[in-house]
Specification:
homodimer; Tetracycline Repressor, domain 2; mainly alpha; DNA-binding
DNA sequence: ATGGCATCTTGTCAACGGAAAGATAGGCTG
DNA sequence: CAGCCTATCTTTCCGTTGACAAGATGCCAT
C-alpha cells in the first residue's frame, strides 16, 4: 500500500486524517500533535502545513468529513425515527474521533465553507427524519421544530454521555445501540 | 481585594481556578495555558505547579468543583423533575467552563479521589429526582434506571448542543431555560 | 528565636505550532 | 526534447508551553 518511498508521499492528506482519527480515539483531541502525525506518516514535521494550513485546518477537515459521514449514516438508516436515532448513536460510537471533534467548534474553524455545507447536509438529514414522522408518534403535533430538537437532544445526550464514560459502569457498556433504543423509545413511545 | 503584594499571593489556588474559568469561557479548554493563568494571577510561571501538580491537576480540581456545584444546583431545584431538568441546563449555561471540563475526562484524572466522590454526589442528586417521580409521570414504571438515563440524556444533550453552538441560530438563543423546558416536557408530558 | 514547612521564584529542557526559504518531482507548453 | 511551473516536501528557525529541579521567602508552632 505504501510503496511510494520517493520524495512525495502519495496521499499524505488522507494518511494524516486517518492517523489523527487513531490518535483521537486513543487519547482524545487534546493529545493531538501535528508533529506526531507527521512522524506516523513518515514525513517531516512541516509537511502537514501544506495540506491543512495549521492544526485547526486539519480538524476542520476532520469535522467536515464527520458531518458528511453522519448525513450518510442517517440517510441510510431508513424512515423510522427510532432507527435514525439509533443510527445517530451508532455513528458517534463507531466514529468517535469525528464525533468528538464535530461538536467542539473551539478546535476548528466553524465558518469554513465546506464545513458549513456539510453540517447543513447533516442537519437536513436529521430534520427530514422527524418531518416524516406519522401523527401518532408525535408528542406535540404542532411543533415539528421542537420535536426535532427533542429527538436530537436525547440521542446526542446519550451518545455524549456514553463516550465520556460518565454513565454508571454497566449501563450499555456492551451494546450502546440497544440501550440507545430503549432510551429513545421513551421519547416516542409508539411502535 | 488583592492588596497582598508580598512574596505570597494569598489565595493563588482560587485565583488560578477563576482565571481558568474566564479563559475557558472565552476560548475553550484547548486554549488554556498554565503560564497564562500564572501571568493573570501575577505570579511566576511555575507557581501553579505547587497547588495542582500539573495541568490535569488543575482541571481535575475544576471538574470536582463543577460536580459539587451541579449537585448543589440540582438539590436546590425542588422536587419537580422538570424543574430539575431545567436546572441541569441552567447549570451548564451559567457554569459553562466547569461543564465543558466535567464531561471531557481526557483532560483530567477521572480516578482522582475527590473527583469520584463529587461525581457520585452529583449522580445521586440526579437519580433522586427521578426516584421521586410520581407514577403517572413515568413512561415506563418498571425501569426507573432507564427513566433516569433518558432524562439525563435529553437535558445533557440539549445543554451540550446549545453550548457547542450547533443549534440553528435562533433556537433558544435568548432563553435556553425556556427552550430546555419545552424539550424536556416532551419526555415527561404530564404537568 | 528558631527550625520546619508551605509557598513562590529562577533556571532549564524537550516538545510543540507556525513561518520562511530551499529542494525535489512530475507535468505542461513550446 | 528543452525549459519552466507548480504542488509537494524538507530544513531551519523562533516563540510558547508543560514540566522539572534547585533555591529563595515568609509564616507558624514549639
Amino acid at each position: 500500500m505504501t510503496e511510494t518511498r520517493g520524495y512525495h508521499h502519495g496521499d499524505l492528506r488522507r494518511a494524516l486524517l486517518t492517523a489523527a482519527v487513531r490518535v483521537i480515539e486513543e487519547s482524545g483531541p487534546a493529545a493531538l500533535s501535528l508533529r506526531d502525525l507527521a512522524r506516523r506518516a513518515g514525513v517531516s514535521h512541516a509537511a502537514p502545513a501544506h495540506h491543512f494550513g495549521d492544526k485547526s485546518g486539519l480538524l476542520t477537515a476532520l469535522a467536515t468529513e464527520g458531518f458528511d459521514l453522519l448525513a450518510e449514516a442517517l440517510d441510510g438508516a431508513g424512515g423510522d425515527l427510532l432507527d435514525r436515532g439509533v443510527a445517530y448513536v451508532d455513528f458517534a460510537v463507531r466514529h468517535r474521533a469525528h464525533f468528538e471533534v464535530m461538536f467542539r467548534p473551539d478546535l476548528y474553524r466553524p465558518d469554513a465553507e465546506n464545513l458549513v455545507a456539510a453540517r447543513q447536509r447533516a442537519s437536513d438529514a436529521l430534520h427530514s427524519g422527524v418531518a416524516a414522522l406519522p401523527e401518532g408518534h408525535r408528542p406535540k403535533a404542532q411543533d415539528p421544530q421542537g420535536d426535532a430538537l427533542a429527538a436530537w437532544s436525547i440521542v446526542h445526550g446519550f451518545a455524549t454521555l456514553w463516550l465520556s464514560g460518565a454513565l454508571p459502569s454497566q449501563v450499555g457498556d456492551d451494546d450502546p445501540r440497544a440501550t440507545a433504543r430503549a432510551v429513545a423509545r421513551r421519547l416516542f413511545p409508539r411502535r
